[in-house]
Amino acid sequence: MESETTSTLEFVKLFSAGVKNIIERSTGKEVHVSRTAMKVNGVQVAGRIGAFVAFNGDYNGIMILNFEGDAALEIVGDSLLNMGLQEEDVPKHVGSDEVRQNIGELANQCVGKCRSMVEEKYDLSSFANIPAVVPITVSISLTMVSKEPANLECVRVCFTTEKRNKFYMELALEPFTEMNIES
Predict the structure, then answer these.
(1) Taking the alpha carbons of 27, 40, 52, 95 in that order, is the dihedral positive or negative?
(2) Lowest model confidence (mean pLDDT) among 15-29, 73-87, 114-128, 169-183
(3) What angle do CA 149, 116, 79 make, to 5 degrees?
(4) Quick one: pLDDT at residue 152?
(5) How confident is the model at residue 182, as a pLDDT?
(6) 63 bridge partner residues
(7) What are the beta bridge partners of residue 154?
(8) Where along the chain do its domains lie?
(9) What pLDDT shows up at residue 135?
(10) Taking 60 as the threshold, does the pLDDT of residue 1 lie above it?
(11) What was the pLDDT predicted at 69?
(12) What is the sign, positive or negative, of the torsion defined by CA atoms of 138, 144, 145, 151?
């Protein structure tokens, strides 16, 4: 049996690719993912609107998508236009129910895609809660119950839309080790 430590960065790469895929498919527009992931001391819901979802099973964590107001409006607007909605029917205010509902649906699709990618690559599965979407005026720190909360690995990745608006994925994961078992 060969053992090697699997970096949280491998999961972050999969989650980043999953978020990029879903946002691009939904909007029909390109999204840029930063080449650098930042290790952070904890995750938080921040920006103008945030969506977070916990997942647990063979691996446990929290994924947060934080949007500046212009990024949320651009992504939701492009997504609705891509589905055939008329320009005049696209929401104009980031605090609208329609924006929150669409951000929640995108977060749900993103975490589903990410979990599917992890299962395909690592043969590990998890179940996710329904994403919660929060309009933000003050950043909110999140934590998860863990056997070793001090060992949670937390990372932030920056995404940029075609109009140069920013949104972020924050990911908190329990540390893990990959073990390749050969028969």
Answers:
(1) negative
(2) 169-183
(3) 100
(4) 79
(5) 59
(6) 53, 171
(7) 40, 172
(8) 2-180
(9) 87
(10) no
(11) 94
(12) negative
**Hey, what are 79's tokens?**
């997504």
SS (H, E, C) the chain: CEEEECCHHHHHHHHHHHHHHHHHHHHCCCCEEEEEEEEECCEEECCCEEEEEEEEECCCEEEEEEECHHHHHHHHHHHHHHCCCCHHHCCCCCCCHHHHHHHHHHHHHHHHHHHHHHHHHHCCCEEECCCEEEECCCCEEECCCCCCHHHCEEEEEEEECCCCCEEEEEEEECCCEEEECCC
What is the tens place of the pLDDT at every residue in 103-139? 999 999 999 999 999 999 989 999 999 999 988 877 7
The structure tokens listed for 141 are 């720190």
Calpha distance 112→22 (Å, rounded)? 10
Q: Cβ neighbours of residue 77 under 8 Å, at least 6 residues apart?
A: 90, 91
What pLDDT does residue 5 have?
A: 43
Q: What is the CATH number of domain 2-180?
A: 3.40.1550.10
